[in-house]
C-alpha cells in the first residue's frame, strides 16, 4: 500500500514538473498569472490603453506600430528595478525587442497610458491634450449606465438605446480628454471621454466602479434641458 502511494506520488511529481516546463518554455510564462510580472501585465491589460499625440509621433519616428505595445505585454520583461511601484499611481517599465515601454497606472483609474522610453520615476499620466484609445479590456459590457431621469433623457436625445450602444460609439471615435480628466479628485478620478454621435461631439464624465466604466453624465449641444 505504501509503495503504491509513493509510486503514484512520484509519477504525479514528474507530471507536475513536466507541466511547469511546458508552461514556462512553450507559453513563455503567459499561462502563469501568479508570477509577479504577469500579474503586472494583467493589471495593465484590464485597463483602457491610451496614448498621447506626442507618443504616437515617437512610435512613428521609430517605425513602431501600436501592436508592439500589446506584444510587450505578452512577451516582454517587466523591469521591476526600473519601475516606480512605491506609490499609489504606479509606472511600470517593460522591455521588449530592444525598446522600453512605460505604462502608467493612475490610482483608482480605468486608464493606462503607454509611453516610449524615459525615466519611470519622472513619468506621470498626461494632463493636457487628447488621448487616442488603442485598446479596451475584453468586456462587451464594460460601460455601465445607472437608471436616472436625466441620463434616460440624454440617451433619448442622442438616440442611444443602451450602454452597449454608447460603448460602440466610444470604440468607433472615442478619445480621452486628458485636460478635463481629474486623476487626483477623491474618492475616485473622473474621466472625460469624447466621442461622436452623427454630427454631434459628446463628452461623457465617467468613473471606474466595480470593474466597469460608470457614466455619470453626458454633455452635448441641445435645445432640450433634461430634468
Count of discrete alpha- or pi-helical segments spanning 4 or more residues: 6
Distance between the termini: 78 Å
Percent of sequence in beta strands: 25-35%
Kindly state the percentage of residues in helix.
25-40%
CATH third-tier fold name of the largest domain: YaeB-like fold
Order of helices and strands: HHEHHEEEEEEHHEEEE
The name of the CATH architecture of the largest domain is 2-Layer Sandwich
Strand ordering within the main sheet:
2-3-4-5-1-6-8-9-10-11-7
Question: What is the CATH domain class of the largest domain?
Answer: Alpha Beta
List the helices and strands and how they pair.
Blueprint: H1 2-26, H2 36-45, E1 48-52, H3 53-61, H4 66-75, E2 77-78, E3 90-96, E4 99-105, E5 111-116, E6 130-135, E7 143-145, H5 149-157, H6 163-173, E8 175-177, E9 191-197, E10 200-209, E11 212-219
Parallel strand pairs: 1-5, 7-11
Antiparallel strand pairs: 1-6, 2-3, 3-4, 4-5, 6-8, 8-9, 9-10, 10-11
Amino acid at each position: 500500500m505504501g509503495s503504491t502511494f509513493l509510486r503514484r506520488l512520484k509519477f504525479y511529481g514528474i507530471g507536475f514538473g513536466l507541466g511547469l516546463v511546458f508552461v514556462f518554455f512553450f507559453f513563455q510564462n503567459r499561462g502563469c498569472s501568479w508570477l509577479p510580472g504577469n500579474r503586472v501585465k494583467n493589471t495593465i491589460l484590464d485597463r483602457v490603453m491610451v496614448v498621447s499625440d506626442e507618443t504616437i509621433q515617437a512610435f512613428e519616428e521609430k517605425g513602431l506600430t501600436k501592436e508592439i505595445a500589446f506584444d510587450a505585454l505578452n512577451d516582454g520583461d517587466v523591469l521591476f528595478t526600473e519601475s516606480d511601484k512605491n506609490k499609489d499611481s504606479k509606472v511600470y517599465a517593460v522591455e521588449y525587442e530592444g525598446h522600453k515601454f512605460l505604462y502608467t497606472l493612475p490610482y483608482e483609474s480605468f486608464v493606462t497610458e503607454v509611453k516610449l522610453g524615459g525615466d519611470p520615476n519622472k513619468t506621470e499620466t498626461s494632463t493636457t491634450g487628447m488621448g487616442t484609445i488603442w485598446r479596451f479590456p475584453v468586456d462587451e459590457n464594460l460601460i455601465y449606465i445607472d437608471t436616472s431621469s436625466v441620463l434616460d433623457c440624454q440617451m433619448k436625445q442622442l438616440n442611444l438605446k443602451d450602454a452597449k450602444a454608447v460603448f460602440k460609439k466610444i470604440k468607433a471615435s472615442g478619445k480621452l480628454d486628458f485636460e478635463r480628466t481629474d486623476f487626483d479628485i477623491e474618492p475616485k478620478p473622473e474621466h472625460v471621454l469624447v466621442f461622436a454621435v452623427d454630427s454631434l461631439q459628446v463628452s461623457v464624465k465617467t468613473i471606474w466602479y466595480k470593474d466597469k466604466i460608470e457614466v455619470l453624465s453626458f454633455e452635448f449641444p441641445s435645445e432640450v434641458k433634461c430634468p
